[in-house]
Design goal:
With 149 residues, the protein is mainly β. The protein contains no helices and 14 strands. The protein has one domain: Exo-inulinase, domain 1 (Jelly Rolls), CATH 2.60.120. β6 and β7 form a beta hairpin.
Length: 149
Amino acid sequence: MVGTDPAQLRLPCRPRGDYQLSGRVVVMKSGGGHRVSFHLPVGEGGGSYSFAHGGVFGGIGRTKAPAGEVSVGKVYRVDMRVGSEDEEAEIVVRVNGAPHLRWKGNPSKLGMDMPTKEYLGIGTFFTRSTVLFSDLRLRMISGRAELLR
């Protein structure tokens, strides 16, 4: 999917259990303040992992990723592992195979960029950028994924 701002794509499935979402992201053209997000359902809630915000790596909620610029034209392999137990959730993110970000807490504290919390989703927001998402793969670690219509 290539999106120009604002662009959102809800993927028609809801993971019910722990899962891994992987994909590639390329900022093809930057309009300055690009924001690239993945929406991750967690338990009964959901939240957004902001891969890039304003040309630098973003974060999850108040947990910020390590400092670094997101380069135009560079391919980033993003692997997100989402798990929950009781009222605690954990999201672990790797970028190009290296540990990048770890968030743990109550899923209700997560911010959302998507209008519905139950869908997996990708999007660009508040930018004039062109972003390519490709090779998205969902792997269930436990539980199952429900097809949504």
